[in-house]
Amino acid sequence: MNGNADHAAPAIEVRDLGMTFGSFRAVAGVSFGVKRGEIFGLLGPNGAGKSTTIRMLCGLLVPTSGTGRVAGLDIVRDTESIRARLGYMSQRFSLYDELTVEENIEFFSGIQGLPRARRETRRDWVLEMAGLREQRQTRTANLSGGWKQRLALGCAVLHEPPILFLDEPTSGVDPISRRLFWDLIHGLAAGGVTVLVTTHHMEEAEYCDRLGVIYRGELVALGTPAELKSNHMRDAVVEITCPRPQEALAAVEVLPSVREASLRGGGLHVVARDAEAALRGIPAALAAAGINASRVERVTPSLEDVFVSLIEAHDRAAGARREVER
Hints:
Elements: H1 3-8, E1 12-21, E2 24-34, E3 39-43, H2 50-58, E4 65-70, E5 73-74, H3 79-84, E6 86-89, H4 101-111, H5 116-130, H6 145-156, E7 163-167, H7 175-190, E8 194-199, H8 202-205, E9 210-215, E10 218-223, H9 225-231, E11 236-241, H10 245-252, E12 258-264, E13 267-272, H11 275-288, E14 295-299, H12 303-325
Parallel strand pairs: 3-8, 3-9, 6-7, 7-8
Antiparallel strand pairs: 1-2, 1-4, 4-5, 9-10, 11-13, 11-14, 12-13
Helix pairs in contact: 4-5, 4-6, 5-6, 6-7
């Protein structure tokens, strides 16, 4: 293979990957590819199969079906070689609380086989990246969640791996720390690192270049956040600004064109089966209730809207299949 072809090859390639535990199907025929330097997210609720997928790609679990390649290496035959090229950060920080910040960095430098000549340079990089120079002698147990998170990230990439796996990396941290963490991730990706992240946070998913939505072990949608919002939701979303939103909700949610409605920021957020019928019927229903709406407008669905729609469509299809099988 020539250099150009190798560079064009996906950093991660998964084909019909499956995992069962007894009679439980955790992952069912998942396929996707991740380009070099891309941030790819697996978005799904807890128990959807995200962590199982990432553990198969790390070589921690042997898949029961399908194939996968990471950095061009087979996830079953080449697990040791993959681990040398991989950084991994789990949702439970793998740090040692009884060690200081600096001692944790030194420990992971040894685990990852860093030559002694590089350890000081990489230690200084982690301290600078994580903003922990002043806390280098602090016991890790005494750090805030955000600092622990950045330290764990630094320890995961001490050996400068070309691929980074993040399994629910921001669970339990505040929104500001989450944003700072993602600034660091985008910096790594800009430097050529390929990032695969699992998450159930919609805000976090927006930071990804592309997403795979996974539910009940199946990949139900694939695309950029913008593509998912544009192409993967049949229903329309309508936002309403009006006085007395509680009364307005009662008037709107009974309309045949409305699938569901909810209060949102002093107004209403409506998911409509038929956009044109909803845009005609909502103002009339509100006027009949004596409510003068200042705004009734169709808007681009949020990622949360798309996520809920995909899951509901999956459950409806699964229910229909069960009825046919009876």
